[in-house]
Amino acid sequence: MSELVQLTRDGEIAIITIQNPPVNALSPGVPEGILASIETVASDDAIQAAVLIGANRRFIAGADIKEFAKITSGGKRSIGLNEVLDKVENCSKPVVAAIEGHAFGGGLETAMACHYRVAAPSAQVGQPECKLGIIPGAGGTQRLPRLCGVAKAAELCAFGDPVKASEALTLGIVDQVIAGDMLAGAVAFAREAAAKPLIRTRDRNGKLSEAADFDAIRKAAAKRSRNLMAAQKAIDSVEASTKMSFDEGLANEQKLFMECLYSDQSKAMIHVFFGEREVAKIPGITKETPVIPIAAAAVIGAGTMGGGIAMCFANAGIPVIVKETTQEALDRGLATIRKNYSNSVKKGRFSQEVMDARMALMTPQLTYDGFEKADIVIEAVFEGMALKKQIFGELDGIVKQGAILASNTSTLNIDEIASATKRPEFVVGTHFFSPANVMKLLEVVRGKETSLPVINTCMQLGKKLAKVSVLVGNCFGFVGNRMFGPYRREAQFLVEEGASVPAVDQVLYNFGMAMGPLATGDLAGLDVGWRIRKEIAHLQKPGIRQPVAEDQLCEKGRYGQKTGVGWYKYDENRNAVVDPDVAAWVKQWATEKGIEQREIGADEILDRCIYALVNEGARILEEGFALRSVDIDIVYLYGYGFPAYRGGPMKYADLVGLDKVYARICEFEKQHGELWRPAPLLEKLAKEGSTFSAWDKSRG
Ligand code: 3HC
Ligand code: NAI
Predict the structure, then answer these.
(1) Cα torsion through 409, 413, 419, 425, rounded to 10
(2) How much distance in Å is there from the Cα of 13 to the middle of ligand 1?
(3) Which of 22, 547, 551, 632 is most buried (most C-beta within 10 Å)?
(4) Could you tell me what percent of the chain has a pLDDT over 70?
């Protein structure tokens, strides 16, 4: 056997154990080890049946995702998993998969090639490949419909959702749920199975003729994962199981799998898979770095953000004080929280009891009473340096030593805020996104004196609050908003140059963004940027073009959805309607500024908006305000609705080719001037034929 797969015995039952920590992926050596074990099982007359189990109470998390990049870059596949699974399925003695933890992707495919499957009550099974931009590639789309029916199999392969053991039992994916000692239970099961005739999954054709509305499933998948090729191909492959023999279906699946594997979508989504884990890795932070226990929290301000942040704590079971300045503001804030929770109860997301328990964790008040007990205080008052410094000064005198003082500021300098205290090492930015109880991103903003334990705690707290935390540096707009500025600037410039408002939004929507940039402005409130621009007007370099239309819209009181009019008009259900007045006004404002009107194509709209993100992202990287390009990508995915199948702005640029991106940016510089000066890092990497991902790796 190999070190990764061990064969032991319990009497006449062979026990094949996969030991490939941390998740028992099917890395090179594992399929080979399973194959060798099965050959022994088949040839040894003393063995009656076998149990296939994973060490450390985990079955198999699937193929080794790291191997895919090796295959697409020309490396050789160690051994075809299909070949191994064929041997398992054709073994003359029953093989029982004993599932604890996860049987995902190739893990479930391995289990389905076994003759029986037993699972622990807490186990989960699933075919999550589409979340990596691929389809099951080792028989999943052919064996799963034979076990649970074609319609369910198509959904499981196209949506990628996990299924708990109890449901897997009902669906026919597993044969028995075993509570208690899994190995003992699976061995007993195998002993009984040894006396029964062998049934191969490939021969179980009964459920293939069940009715299935594939078109409806395709539509549902397209709605849930817009533009995702793998979801559609997974359905095609499951549908093929109803029309082809098992072997033909397997060959067809392999062809579709390869098409997906070599696509940019899968490269992007695999980048995201590893990126989501990479962002948690921070130089200097180790397992030994202390984490400050957060048992009690306080939030200052119960407005849009403070209310949402307080909900995050209550949702995580952490008691939270909510402080306001007036009873009216406090009542308004709490009423919004209550309304949000009630809506969730109405939608059946959780029960009234859960809502009541969460509300009971909140202590609304107008004073600092109890702040001395808080382990973290998050300030979310109006955006103004003087006010924030006053509050941090007050907190410094009240809050216990060792507690974290965090600001939710979106633009202000964390170091200056920290200077109002005598403990700048405990001051940090926790930049939530609106609505804070919904959006998954948390930018943890590191001040120059913020300590590693404080950063470590905030990163981990993010996880507890169901967020993806990304560490960012203390520059204007941090990472996300700093890049969003040029992106939205270009959207506005394009409209001022003659593109229509819906055309700009449609191009970005078709690219995969959750919303177009102008509609996003209407949602967030156009007045927010307008106020910031007024505040920082004195910092603007003279002679540099500024967008005019949005400020003019604000002058007309058109702040977006909140006033019912912005770039669009909104009906009572907040549906956007194109407003012809806007086009006429923008044309007039542009003419007054001497901006030439012209036809603008979709390619230019896309490149100007997305490359504006990329160019600013490259500057952020070079200036050290993001640790890696993948951190920027994760910020964009979770904070700004960037499509996962594009991998984030930096990965998208890598996939287009930095030479092409750089050349286009140089063109824009010629046409539009210094706002488009290429970032030096982009220029360097483009000229070297390199990528942002390679740059990340070169820095360790
Ligand atoms: N291949 C390679 N590495 C993997 C992996 C896999 N399938 N699954 C997890 N890892 C790595 C992670 O990158 C991480 O590495 P790190 O510590 O260096 O950052 C480590 O294992 C631990 O992973 P998690 O932090 O995610 O551990 P959790 O305990 O939180 O979650 C899990 C476990 C639910 C199994 C989760 O890791 C997961 O969802 N994994 C991916 C499952 C998947 O997508 N499987 C399908 C693969 S494609 C396939 O099988 C194709 C087939 O059809 C041929
Ligand atoms: P908001 O105006 O909705 O709420 C601010 C609240 O703070 C008000 O209810 C106000 O009464 C209260 N407040 C003011 N002074 C106070 C004090 N001394 N003590 C207690 N409460 C006080 O503002 P919003 O949008 O919630 O913004 C709060 C902070 O979050 C700002 O720094 C903003 O830049 C930032 N932010 C805002 C985002 C958004 O989309 N609205 C997104 C991310 C960050």
Answers:
(1) 80
(2) 30
(3) 632
(4) 99
Sign of CA pseudo-dihedral 343, 345, 346, 348: positive
Residue 256, CA distances (Å) to 25, 136, 140, 141, 239 in order: 22, 9, 12, 11, 13
DSSP result, 95-117: EEEEE-SEEETHHHHHHHHSSEE
Which ligand is in closest contact with the Cα of 411? 2
Q: How far apart are CA 310 and CA 438, in angstroms?
A: 12
Q: Model pTM?
A: 0.95
Instruction: Say whether 543 sits in a helix, a strand or coil.
Output: coil
Confidence at 610, pLDDT banded by 50, 70, 90: very high
Task: Report the C-alpha gap between 92 and 495 in whole angstroms.
Answer: 69
Burial of 317 (0-12, 13-18, 19+ CB in 10 A): exposed
Identify the pLDDT of residue 574: 87
- Residue indicated by tokens 């950063």: 455
Q: How far apart are CA 241 and CA 112, in angstroms?
A: 15
Residue 413, exposed/middle/buried by CB under 10 A (0-12, 13-18, 19+)? middle
Q: What angle do CA 424, 425, 430 make, to 5 degrees?
A: 85
pLDDT in tens, 90-146: 999 999 999 999 999 999 999 999 999 999 999 999 999 999 999 999 999 999 999
Long-range contacts for 328-333 (Cβ within 8 Å, ≥24 apart)? 329/302, 329/303, 330/302, 330/364, 330/365, 330/366, 332/302, 333/302, 333/303, 333/306, 333/307, 333/364
Which candidate in 89, 129, 604, 616 is catalytic?
129
Strand stretches in 504-663, DSSP E: 568-570, 576-578
486 CA → ligand 1 middle, Å: 35
3-state helix, strand, coil in the chain (%, to 5): 55, 15, 35
The question of whether 443 is a catalytic residue gets the answer no
Tell me which of 109, 155, 604, 616 is the catalytic residue.
109
Enclosing H/E stretch for 491: helix 480-496
What is the maximum span of the chain, computed from C-alpha positions, in angstroms? 92
Contact (CB, 8 A) for 464 and 661: no
- Taking only the tens place, the pLDDT of each residue in 462-491 is 999 999 999 999 999 999 999 999 999 999
Contact 268, 436 (CB under 8 A): no
Strand order in the sheet with 468-473: 362-365, 320-323, 297-300, 376-379, 404-407, 427-432, 441-446, 468-473
- For residue 350, how far is the Cα from the chain centroid? 23
Look up 688 and say whether it is catalytic: no
End-to-end CA distance of the chain: 35
From 20, 64, 65, give the residue whose CB has the most ligand 1 atoms within 8 Å, as the site to mutate. Answer: 65
pLDDT score at 1: 53
- Location of structure tokens 């307008």: 530
Closest listed residue to residue 179, CA positions, set 166, 194, 196: 166
Q: What does residue 699 show for φ and ψ, rounded to 5 degrees? A: -95, 5
Alpha helix ranges (H) inside 46-80: 66-72
> Which residues, 6 or more positions from 536, have their beta carbon under 8 angstroms from its beta carbon?
none
